[in-house]
Structures are given as structure tokens and as C-alpha cells.
Design a protein that fits this description.
Three copies of one chain form a homotrimer. Chain A has 162 residues and is α+β, with helices and mostly antiparallel strands. Chain A has one domain: RutC-like (60s Ribosomal Protein L30, Chain: A, 2-Layer Sandwich). Chain A contains four helices and seven strands.
Chain lengths: 162, 162, 162
């Protein structure tokens, strides 16, 4: 089953592209790599929830927010790659988790994003990863997640030197 | 207008390379990509200002410090690429912003670096980005910013396998 | 002297691969680049020490823990590249250092990892770098370090499109 088919089966509809908060773009291609800007759990332009893990946000909620941020990342990725079926690998996921003092379960939170990659892309979704804590994040988001994907050579070639 | 010409028009003189604080180098090329080490707002080897956003440092000051760190990044980039005119894209900017409790305007601070990329490189300066908070940074710097650039294929080729 | 010979001379035996804490893999190759997941100072599956720099962990201990995390990173790298002798460059090291309030010596801690790269790979071990603080890290680890390496073209080619 292709990634786009899998997405449909999961009942996931990719949202409109969230607007960047600063003077940058949602993603950049270089060769076969696509760098995705830090994604927040925005829905209709608003954070689904604010606060920190270990305080206002539970691990279970955090994982769902990580999944929501990852869905936004897939929307950005599709806009760049044309179709998720042009993706050959999820290379790297870096998750910054807003953490109250003493919260050390960042990996469990980031699993919400990692699991989605596996569900959508299968073995191509298995990625290198880092989960780290942050004392504060933009707009008081509980999670911010960035991604690097590899896409098909011919798709990458089109934009070389762009 | 070329990037080097634009820099001149902006009245920006790139400084001497800031010395790395540890056992590493300012930048590494791999293929067409240049990875720039985390840059601080150093001037003549000293931090322009110390402290945290939301406490000792205002958003406006922070944005100027981010711009200063980005200027140091361009100095490193020129040393690696020979000339800024060999740059084909600013691929990724990651900004770590020292944040006092409750400070959530990291994107506005990082705009100081992002805007400079756009001013110098035009559309080639539009980058993917992540702005995150940190409770502490080296030397009590308010901002630390790292960069990935893409340079011309023939420049990249010279160093392949280096 | 090759990197594998150098490792032997240093008396370093690379450990069994530490198990990832989430739904991801220890490393991913894309072209000539290898992305290594965030590494912790685990020994036999347990953190050598927990706590924060500037509180429970001294700079000297922190540097040793960074070295231990880097050794785990080399184990992951060897598993991916077949041999450390297939490595053409250590491209980037990013170190997250768990920091108590007021701790600003993150670079000295990360030197424990940077110095090892230089010892093992010589000039090929010189890398771009960022050292940043974090208020909390997974499992209360004092350090988490991620790496990007460049490997020989023919090794990279084998897995292109994987």
C-alpha cells in the first residue's frame, strides 16, 4: 500500500499549510533531502493545547500533540514533494518537548510523531531521532518537531541549484 | 544584485572568524552542503550582551543579537565557500534562544537572523527553520544559531571525500 | 593509522548497540550521509550517571559522559558503515547538556565527544558543532549527543533509495 493510500486508510486528511511564524518557509529541498521547519500542534491556526509536559499536559496528551504536529509536517512534505509516494525515507526527527522541572519522558511524547511515520511509510518511516527537553517553546506549545525526509532522485533533481 | 554586492550595499563588513570555543571547526562541507557551527553574537571576541530573553534582554535587542550571530555565520560561510556568490540556498536555520520562565517569543528573536538571510540572498535566503528555547546557553549568550547552506555543485565537488 | 586501528590503540571496545527508547532506529543513511540518533551515556543499558551539570554532575564528569555517549555513537556508526574506516568525515555534532540554573560551560562538556572524534579520525574528525543547554533530558541523562557522518561514496551508493 502506498503512503497516500495508507494515509487515507488511517482517515487522516492533511490540513492547509500552517503559516510560518517568522520570515522563513515551511520547507526547503536540497538534492534528495527535504528539510521541514519546526512544526507545532496547530489546528485551524490555533494550538490544540498549551503548556508543559509534567504540568498542564500529560504524556498521553503530549503524544497526541506530537502526532498532530507530525500531520502538519506531512502536509508541508506533500506540498514540497508533490505526493507522499515520492518519499523514499524519513531520515531524521528532532523533537523539542516543553518540560516542567523533573519531566524526563520526552521519548514517550515524541513517539506520537515517530509512530505516525511508521504507520504511513512502513519501513521507510523508520528514522534517526533525538528527543530533548526545552524550558520554553514558541507560543507556549508543548511540542515542536522538525523533520528531514529523502525523496526520489528525479524529484530532487528538478530543484537542484534552486 | 549578487549577495556580495548586497552585503556591501547593506554596509555590512564581515568580521574576522570568531574562534571556536571547543575542539571543533567553524564549518564543514559535505557535497553541496555546508554545516555552520552554532554562532554567538560575538564582536571582537566578546559577547555583545549576556542574559535571557524575558529578563535582561528585550525582544528587539534579541533580534539584533540574532542578526549579529548571523553576520558571524556569513563570515564562516564565506571562508568556506570562497564567496557568498557561490551560495545557492540557505537551507536551514536553527535558533536556540535563552529564555526566562514564561518567554515564548523565540520566533520574533530569530527573525533577526532570518531577515538578514533574505536581505543578503533574496529568495535563495528563504530557509526552513526551528526556533526553540533553552534554559541556559554557553557563556550566558542570549542566542545561539546554526546554519546549513547549499553551495554551487563545482565548489562542493572540489572537497568531496575531504 | 586507520580509525579502527586507532580505536584499538586507544583501548576502546565498542559496546553492543544501545536499544532506542522509542519507535525509531539508531541511524539512517541517505546518500553519503549517516544520521545518528541522540546518544546517551549508557553502559550495559543503564545511564552511567544521572543529573544536571552545575548540580549533581561536574564539568569533568560531564566530559567523560559525553565521551561515553560518543563511544555509543561510534558503535552505531560502525554497524551502519561496516567499518569506521569507511568514514570520510565527522560532519556535525550537536550536544544537549542538562543544565542547572546558571551553568554556561556546555562547550567544555561537549569537548569530551569532540576530542574523541579527533583522536579516532584525526583531521577527518574535525566537525561543525553546537553545544546547547536543556532544562530536562530523557531519563535524567546529563548529556544527549547526535551526530552526522559522511561515508565513502561506494558505501553510500549501496543504500541509495533504501
Amino acid at each position: 500500500m502506498s503512503a497516500e493510500e495508507k494515509l487515507k486508510e488511517l482517515g487522516i486528511v492533511l490540513p492547509e499549510l500552517p503559516k510560518p511564524l517568522g520570515s522563513y518557509v515551511p520547507s526547503v529541498r536540497t538534492g534528495m533531502l527535504v528539510f521541514i521547519s519546526g512544526q507545532l500542534p496547530l489546528k485551524d491556526g490555533k494550538l490544540i493545547k498549551q503548556g508543559k509536559l509534567g504540568a498542564e499536559v500529560s504524556v498521553e496528551e503530549g503524544a497526541l500533540l506530537a502526532r498532530a504536529a507530525a500531520i502538519n509536517g506531512l502536509a508541508v512534505l506533500r506540498a514540497q514533494a508533490g505526493s507522499l509516494d515520492n518519499v523514499t525515507r524519513c531520515v531524521k526527527v528532532t523533537g523539542f518537548i516543553a518540560s516542567a522541572p523533573g519531566f524526563t519522558d520526552q521519548p514517550k511524547v515524541l513517539n506520537g510523531a515517530s509512530d505516525l511515520m511508521k504507520e504511513v511509510f512502513g519501513d521507510k518511516g523508520l528514522h534517526a531521532r533525538a528527543a530533548v527537553g526545552a524550558n520554553e517553546l514558541p507560543m507556549d506549545t508543548p511540542v515542536e518537531i522538525e523533520f528531514i525526509f529523502e525523496i526520489k532522485r528525479e524529484i530532487g533533481r528538478e530543484v537542484e541549484g534552486s
